[in-house]
């Protein structure tokens, strides 16, 4: 007898096994088995056993796998391995068994997708995936032709084919010709019964199921009773379900209920069976014909089940939503709430929200304001998810304004703010940034101690930051304490703001001011590192500290390397680790000799680049550029330029148009030209810019425009530099450090192009508006330039 386990496993893609940790016992075992399966010096039987043992070992892993997509990917590889063995060992003794096993894996895929669909009926893609997998399984089983004198394998194939046909039929509409044809073929394959006892039992139950589907209830009942007398008998649960289906189809309600009570099953399974029985009873009754007691019992059982949140409870709610039953005014709030949960699972959020509002009305009638608010909160949440934001706003505002709403008020307040934020982003009429901010402010004011209010603080801080109210943003970030889900985000956001302001001041501030700002930012980050709750938070903050210490003129690149060395054993996602490695590369160049290590890292970048790390890559190239711009030694500037060129040149010539946006591709070409300028290769830089038409229209990134103006100045393209600096001045907030920097850059470009009057006029106009000309280092630059203009008149 060929034993085929009904519970099937997963086979990992072979390529991924080679990436598994060396101490992964499963990976090591599979590698050993594969070597045996591929060893031509071994007898074919040993090699067959090794291949099948691989499948068996991975079957144990299958039960712990999450989701049908993950399972499907593993089973795909399992099928490929079995097929590959058959191709490389054509006609081996167990080749047909391998074919059958491949078909069983494909059937298992289909059932996995189907079961997921049963729990998630809103996902139509699951049905398509299930149908496709089952169709392939059916084709594979049909391709295995019986051989003379062979009984066990042929019977297995026949049973597997009939099972797959029966399962595939259930994906077709009831009473459709396709469904009837599949079921007709499936039932024909169940006769004559197989000879192997265990297989005979499962075949008998399948035949009973198919006979029941086509309405031959007496024959189906006889088949089930015949199966119960077989040796071995069917599993008790399978026998119970088969008998219950037949009794339900016969509308023998009392017997069915007695069977459920006596069933050898756990409470969730019994309750699911009872729910399905009550739905069948109610569907068979005419309206008003003694339905009240049955309906009350149905909703009582469902209410108890959903509290437990078991898979059976979800299946029960799915069955309720599919039943077509409706709630009436005489039902309680609980019944409407249960029905709403059922339609939510089905994906009909509009109907679910309507039912929750109906439940709220029942609660109002029962003088239960807290309960009514809880139902309105659920209705608002469903409308929010459905995109009906104005209606969600109205319902949630009602809950927020009700002093008797109890615990629902704080939850409604946060959800109201989120709804307004989404409506604002979508450009919905009547929603303003002020109304969004008001909802967030109210949440923070009314519920300061609620853990969920930290989300409101985080959102309001982001809104304040976007409006350049950095003081308010910092205050809100500080209010988010350790232990909050948003604490790390807040600390990193504060660190990013400190870094941005520090780098903005590089052009305008005195060195002493820069050092003081750097010290405050460093102290703040180090305090956060001490408060971190684990290695994951600590690693993220240490990377931020490493980045801060790479700011030119004031940072400490050696300390940056120390921070990055500390995180090597800490948990990080691939994209985060890639960013850390890029920062380490910059730190190596900044630290100085030996430079060759950094250059080798840059040359090998393609071998360790992370596909999801595009943002980190651009950050590193900008940082290298910034370090070179502020370098105080020619040799150091050239070294930075060399590493920048090694990184950027392959990316700038990348033929894959999908990898980079138009703005990013323009920036890469500009960075390459600047790398060549840092290396002293002005001719090469000009050649690199020949195909550069400037940044795409609409570009507002000031750092990019600043570097572009500097590039034009370095190659003496002063008119182009003037155009870019004018654009910068229009985009920037007057009086900001970056604005003073752009005004100085424009005056300098005028001066270098020989337009001395325009340069002087610009400086004087700036001084009228801002007599101190920005103060600090930028004021001294303006003064020196005005003196140079005067000396040339």
From TrEMBL:
InterPro entries: TPR-like_helical_dom_sf. SUPFAM superfamilies: TPR-like (SSF48452). This is Tetratricopeptide repeat protein. It comes from Aquisphaera giovannonii.
């Amino acid at each position: 007898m060929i034993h085929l386990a009904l519970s099937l496993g997963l086979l990992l893609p072979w390529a991924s096994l080679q990436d598994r940790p060396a101490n992964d016992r499963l990976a090591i075992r599979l590698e050993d088995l594969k070597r045996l399966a591929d060893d031509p010096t071994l007898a074919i039987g040993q090699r067959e056993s090794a291949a099948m043992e691989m499948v068996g070992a991975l079957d144990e892993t299958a039960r712990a796998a999450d989701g049908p997509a993950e399972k499907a990917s593993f089973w795909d590889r399992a099928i490929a391995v079995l097929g590959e063995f058959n191709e490389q060992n054509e006609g081996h003794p167990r080749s047909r068994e391998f074919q059958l096993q491949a078909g069983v894996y494909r059937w298992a895929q289909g059932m996995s997708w189907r079961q997921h669909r049963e729990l998630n009926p809103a996902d139509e893609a699951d049905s398509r995936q299930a149908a496709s997998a089952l169709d392939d399984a059916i084709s594979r089983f049909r391709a295995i032709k019986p051989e003379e004198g062979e009984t066990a394998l042929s019977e297995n194939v026949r049973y597997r084919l009939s099972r797959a046909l029966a399962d595939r039929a259930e994906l077709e509409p009831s009473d459709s010709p396709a469904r009837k044809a599949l079921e007709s073929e499936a039932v024909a394959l169940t006769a004559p019964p197989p000879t192997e006892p265990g297989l005979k039992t499962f075949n008998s139950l399948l035949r009973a199921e198919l006979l029941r589907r086509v309405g031959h209830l007496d024959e189906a009942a006889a088949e089930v009773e015949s199966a119960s007398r077989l040796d071995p008998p069917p599993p008790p649960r399978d026998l119970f379900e088969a008998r219950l289906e037949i009794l339900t189809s016969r509308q023998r309600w009392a017997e069915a209920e007695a069977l459920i009570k006596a069933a050898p099953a756990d409470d969730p399974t019994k309750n699911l069976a009872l729910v399905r029985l009550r739905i069948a009873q109610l569907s068979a009754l005419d309206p008003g014909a003694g339905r009240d007691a049955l309906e009350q019992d149905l909703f009582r059982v469902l209410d108890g089940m959903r509290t437990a949140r078991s898979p059976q409870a979800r299946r029960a709610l799915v069955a309720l939503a599919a039943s077509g039953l409706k709630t009436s005014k005489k039902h309680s709030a609980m019944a409407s709430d249960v029905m709403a949960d059922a339609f939510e699972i089905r994906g009909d959020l509009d109907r679910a929200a309507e039912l929750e509002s109906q439940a709220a009305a029942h609660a109002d009638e029962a003088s239960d304001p807290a309960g009514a608010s809880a139902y309105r909160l659920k209705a608002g949440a469903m409308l929010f998810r459905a995109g009906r934001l104005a209606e969600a706003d109205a319902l949630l505002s009602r809950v927020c304004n009700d002093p008797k709403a109890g615990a629902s008020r704080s939850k409604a307040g946060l959800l109201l703010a989120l709804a307004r934020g989404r409506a604002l982003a979508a450009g919905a009429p009547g929603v303003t940034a002020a109304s969004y901010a008001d909802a967030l402010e109210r949440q923070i004011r009314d519920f300061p101690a609620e853990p969920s209010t930290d989300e409101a603080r985080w959102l309001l801080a982001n809104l304040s930051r976007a409006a350049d109210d950095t003081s308010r943003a910092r205050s809100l970030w500080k209010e988010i304490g350790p232990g909050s889900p948003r604490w790390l985000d807040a600390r990193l956001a504060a660190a990013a703001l400190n870094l941005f302001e520090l780098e903005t001041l590089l052009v305008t501030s005195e060195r002493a001011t820069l050092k003081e700002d750097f010290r405050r930012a460093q102290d703040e980050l180090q305090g956060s590192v001490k408060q971190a709750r684990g290695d994951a938070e600590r690693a993220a903050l240490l990377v931020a500290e490493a980045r801060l210490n790479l700011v030119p003129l004031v940072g400490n690149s050696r300390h940056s390397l120390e921070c990055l060395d500390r995180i090597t054993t800490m948990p990080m996602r691939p994209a985060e680790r890639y960013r850390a490695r890029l920062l380490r590369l910059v730190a190596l160049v900044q630290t100085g000799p030996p430079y060759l290590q950094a250059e080798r890292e840059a040359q090998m970048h393609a071998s360790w680049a992370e596909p999801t790390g595009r943002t980190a890559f651009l950050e590193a190239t900008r940082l290298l550029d910034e370090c070179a711009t502020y370098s105080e030694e020619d040799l150091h500037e050239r070294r930075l330029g060399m590493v920048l060129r090694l990184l950027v040149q392959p990316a700038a010539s990348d033929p894959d148009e999908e990898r980079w946006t138009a703005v990013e591709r323009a920036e890469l070409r500009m960075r390459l030209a600047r790398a060549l300028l840092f290396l002293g290769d002005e001719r090469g830089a000009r050649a690199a810019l020949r195909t550069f038409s400037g940044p795409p229209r609409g570009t507002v990134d000031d750092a990019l425009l600043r570097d572009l103006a500097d590039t034009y100045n370095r190659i003496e393209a002063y008119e182009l530099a003037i155009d870019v600096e004018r654009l910068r001045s229009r985009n920037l907030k007057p009086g900001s450090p970056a604005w003073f920097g752009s005004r100085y850059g424009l005056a300098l470009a005028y001066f270098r192009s020989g337009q001395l009057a325009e340069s002087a006029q610009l400086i004087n106009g700036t001084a009228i508006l801002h007599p101190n000309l920005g103060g600090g280092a930028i004021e001294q630059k303006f003064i020196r330039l005005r003196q140079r203009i005067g000396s040339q008149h």
